[in-house]
Amino acid sequence: MTKAKLSKGLIFTLLLIGGIAMSIPFIWLLFSSFKHNKEIIGYPPTFFPETFTLTHYLNLNSRFNIGRYFMNSVFLSTVKTVLAVYTSLLCGYVLAKFNFFLKNFLFKIVLFTMMVPYIITVIPVYQMITDFGWKDQYIAIIAPTILSSFGIFMMRQYIKTGVPDELLEAARIDGAGEFRIFHTIVIPLCVNMISALTIFLFLWNWEDFLWPYLVLNTQDKFPLAVALNMFSGQNTTNYGGLFATSLVTILPVVIVYFMFQKRFVEGISMSGIK
Amino acid sequence: MIEIKIKTNSQMASQKALIILVSVLMISFYSVFSIGPMIYAFVGSFADWNPIKDTFQFIQFNNYIHLFNNQLFWKSLKNTIYFVAVVVTGRVVLGFLIALGLNSIRKYKSMMRSLYFLPVIMPIVAVALVWKWLYDPNIGFFQMVLSAFGITNVKFLFDPDLALPSIMLMTIWKDVGYAVIIFLAGLMDVPQSIIEASEIDGANKRQQLWNIIIPTLKPTLIFVIITSIISYFQTFTQIFIMTKGGPGTSTHVLLYMIYREAFQYYRFGYASAITVCLFIVIMIVTFIQFKIMKGGEV
C-alpha cells in the first residue's frame, strides 16, 4: 500500500518537474521582457529582473504596429477557417450521404492529397499566383486553402454515422430541399466536429509562415508571424523590445486556450481518431 | 402505403444541384491547387524553369543528374533523416511516458496537461525566436544554467555539432504535447475491466503495459509516428528562423534547400526535382505504414 502511494507520489513529482521545465522558456521570456536592455546583456546574467521596467511594452506600438498585424492575422485566419470549415461540411456531407458517379474518385483524391507533402505544390502554385497577378494580395493566401482534405475527411467520417439517414428522409418527406436540410439539420448535428475542426484550422492558419512570407511584399499586409520575423531582423540587439513583441504574439493564443481549454483538447484528440 | 422515397421535382432538382455543386467545387479546386500543381512540379523537374528569366525548357534528366552529384543534397538528406529519427523518437517516447503518467494521476490533471500542451499552440515563429535567445551564448538562459556548473563557452546554435540537436530539442519541446493529448485519448480506450481482471490474476504493471496497454494503443502509436515522420520531413520554419542552415551546412535540411533553390536563386526546375525526391521518400514511408497496419492490426 505505501509502496503504491510512494510510486504515485514519484510519478506526480516527475510530471511536475517536467511541466515546470516545459514552461521555463515562457517564464524566462516573461521575466526578461521586464528587464532593461543593459541588464539583459549584462554579466552575470539574471533570471528575475533586478529593476523592473515596462519600457519595452510602452514602446511597443511605436516601433511595431502590433494592432495592425494582429488584425491582419485575425482577418486571414478567420476567413480561411470559416471557408474551409463550411466547404468541409458541404463536401463531407455529399461524400457521406449520396451515391453518384464521381463519389469514389473524389474521395480517393481527398485521401491521396492528405498524404502528399504540401511543399510539392508550393513552387507551381507560386508560379500560378504570379501569372494570375495575385502576388501581394490576400486572395493568394486564401484561395489555395478554400478546401481542406483533412477537414473533408474528418467531416465525411463523422457525418456517415453521426447524422442518421432517418432524420434526413423525414425532412425530405416534409418537403425540405437539400440545401435547407444541410443548413438546418446536418450542420447543427455536427457542432462538436465543427468546433474541433475550427480550432485545428485556426491554429494552423494563425502560425502559418512560409506561404504568406513568400507571396506578400507590402508590410502593412503582413500577418503577425511574418511581421515578427521582419521585426527581429531589424532589431537584432534591442532584446527587450524583441522579447516584449514575441510575448505579445504568443499571449493571445494562450488566453484563448484557457478560455476554451476543454474544446482545444477535444479538438486535438479528434484529429487522431481514424 | 405509397412509396416512401417519393420526392417532389424540386427536391430532385435540389439534390442534383448539391451533387453538381460539390463535384464542380472539388474538381476545380483540386485541379488548380493540388493535383494540377503536382503534375506541374513533376513536369517542371525536367525543365530549366526560371520565373525571373521566364524560361521553361526541357533539359531531360539534367536537374536530377546535378542533384545526385551535389554534395549539399546528400548532406541535406542526411540531416533531414537524422532530424526525423531523433525528433519522432523523442516525441513518441516522451509523449507516451507523459501520457501514462498523466493518466495515472487524479489531482491537478488538467493543470499538468496544460503545462505540456501550451507549447503546441504557440506560433512557431515566436517559439523559434525565443529558443534562439535561450541558446544565445551571451544572454541565453542555457548559458546561465551551465555557467552555474562551471561550464562555459558552449556555443549551441553556433557549434556545427550542437546546432541541429539544439533545434531538435526545441522541436520536441514544442510538439510533444500533441502526442500527449492523442495518447491520452487513446488510453481512454484501454478496457478497465481487463486491467482489473489482470490485477486479480496477479499481473504486474510491466506486464499490463506490454500485454494490454501497448496493443490497444497500437493504431494510435502508428498514427502519431507516421504523421510525425511526414511532417518532420518538411521541417522549415525553425531552421529558417534559428540558423538558416548553418553554421556551414550543419542544419541544412531538404526543405531549406528547396526554399533556397526556389526562392533565392529562382531555379524552380531544380527545386522541383528535390520536391519530387521528397515526395517519393514520403510515399515509401506511407506505403510501409499501410503494410504494417494491414499486417499487424485490425
UniProtKB/TrEMBL annotation, chain A:
One Pfam family per UniProt: BPD_transp_1
Residue ranges occupied by any ABC transmembrane type-1 domain in the UniProt entry: 70-260
SUPFAM superfamilies, per database record: MetI-like (SSF161098)
Gene Ontology biological-process annotations: transmembrane transport
Localization per Swiss-Prot or TrEMBL: Cell membrane
Membrane-spanning intervals of the chain: 12-31, 69-96, 105-126, 138-159, 180-204, 239-260
Source species, domain of life: Bacteria
Major site of localization recorded for this protein: membrane
Stored InterPro entries: MetI-like (IPR000515), MetI-like_sf (IPR035906)
Recorded family membership: Belongs to the binding-protein-dependent transport system permease family.
Protein name, UniProt field: Multiple sugar transport system permease protein/raffinose/stachyose/melibiose transport system permease protein
Originating organism: Halanaerobium saccharolyticum
Automatic annotation (TrEMBL), chain B:
Pfam families, per database record: BPD_transp_1
Keyword Translocase part of the UniProt annotation: no
Membrane topology: Multi-pass membrane protein
Domain ABC transmembrane type-1: 77-289
Xref: PROSITE patterns: ABC_TM1 (PS50928)
Location(s) in or outside the cell: Cell membrane
InterPro entries: ABC_transporter_permease, MetI-like, MetI-like_sf
GO BP terms: transmembrane transport
Residue ranges of the TM segments: 20-43, 81-102, 114-134, 167-188, 209-233, 239-258, 270-290
CC per GO annotation: plasma membrane
Keyword terms: Cell membrane, Membrane, Sugar transport, Transmembrane, Transmembrane helix, Transport
Protein name, UniProt field: Multiple sugar transport system permease protein
Organism: Halanaerobium saccharolyticum
